[in-house]
Amino acid sequence: MTLPHVSNWVNGAHASSASHHLKVINPATGAEIATIDATSRETVDDIILKSLDTFKNGKWSKADPSERYAVLSKAAVLLRARIPEFAELETEQTGRPIREMRAQLGRIPEWLEYFASLARTHEGRVTPFKGPVINTLTRLPLGVVAQITPWNHPLLIATKKLGAALAAGNVVILKPSEMAPLSVLKLGALFQEAGLPDGTLQIIGGYGRETGKYICENTHLAKIDLTGGLLTYQAIAGKAGENMIPITAELGGKAPVCLFPSLDVTYAVKAALFASFIASGQTCVTGSRLLVHKDIYEPFTELLVKRVKAFRVGDPKDTKTQIGAVISQASVTRCTDFVERAAKEGGNVLCGGKPTSVNGQGFFFEPTIIETTRGSNLSCNEVFGPVIALIKCDSEEEMIEVANETSFALGASVWSNDFNQAHRVADKIDSGIVWINGHHLNDPSSPWGGWKESGMGKENGIEAYESYTKVKSTVMNYGVQPTWFDDEIENARYG
Ligand code: TXE
């Protein structure tokens, strides 16, 4: 059977197929579902050079903000109308349950609406410059920017990044993950229908270590926006540094979920399930460390294990399925390795712990809870799968210490009915995002990004929009005389 091939989207059309292809696999069945281009360095360089011309011609980079608003708003309408189709495709290429994909995708047009509104309403500034001088600050687009996106939320992350970059007037080179590129490759035609000038959004397929690397090494880029692993950041940072290309990096995490005794135990367990097992634990903010106060630890653990054992692991296309596949065989192996090492370190596997399958196929891993101690491998390192560390803490102080003792600092949640305690703890947690009595909550207006090895810079919000602009300072003098070199002038102003 010949697989459908989806070529790059370049200059407003699907380009003719590249000489090398790569296969996209449905992780829930192991079946090959499509091929995409494995784009060569030569083609990447050519596309970026043409994109530079597109940026310079000003059709989008100098378009009136009201025009950018109109295009992005229309793209939101078009996207909203196609959510059911996109949700099915996301499920097919990621193995995530259809109920998750419908819920997640239902909100992504909001990102385009938000950034459309920012394009239309964002204002420059006038500084309090001394004297008869007016200083205006205006924001200009950066140029040709690269966006390197992952497989776990293919459309959400691409839409977040695109919204900000396009609203600000940039030309975008978008490289989706080779593991789940199909939905993102469909965005080109959608934005074209919305009125985006051809060549403003270029979507390029390929392996990260090849095509991704070629893109990030190109000297014409004005910014790189990566969501991916620390190793990927480290692989691109050197060259980008040499080329003076700034990077926004949204990397991994090891989010603590701090559960205090003022909580009803049933509620605390529901909180933990939600924090830990969305996307089979494959999100950067997965609540991968359950830090539970000793006063509720026993009943909490008993109920938690009961609920996790009852999860419906199954075919992601089935609306009843709660836990789908993980992305690849490599991910299954990684989960297995973490479980084995945790057991060797004295961890207690309370449930799960093994690879599994659905209808005898696919890459699945049993939802797993391992009782462990602070400082263990599982407590400190990211699994990016459904293997969750459970840690008993004796006090509020200990919980804060444990929460802060990994090299990551992206997301964290604090669950307590004691208002003062919730704020006190949230205040002391070292993390880019802290939720109180919530987890995973996300909004286009709310800056999203971590510190330490979780990355730098923000997605979402005015911060993301501004990170796709450069500031121009225009200083208009209406009174300072250029008398500096005149003879014997007192109090002449120089600066
Ligand atoms: O990401 P990769 P992977 C983290 C998480 C996870 C780890 C590995 O910690 O365990 O990353 O996941 C492209 N030059 N997150 O292997 O490889 C690649 O093609 C340029 C966190 O899937 O970093 C893809 O488009 N590009 C995260 C993108 O980088 C390169 C979501 C991400 O892939 C490249 C996913 C290179 N040398 C993973 N190598 C989150 N924050 O949600 C790879 N790429």
Automatic annotation (TrEMBL):
Keywords from the UniProt entry: Aromatic hydrocarbons catabolism, Oxidoreductase
EC number: 1.2.1.3
GO molecular function, one term: aldehyde dehydrogenase (NAD+) activity
Residues forming the catalytic site: E250
Coiled coil regions, renumbered to chain: none
SUPFAM superfamilies found in the cross-reference section: ALDH-like (SSF53720)
Pathway linked to the protein: Aromatic compound metabolism; naphthalene degradation
Protein name, entry field: aldehyde dehydrogenase (NAD(+))
Organism: Exophiala mesophila
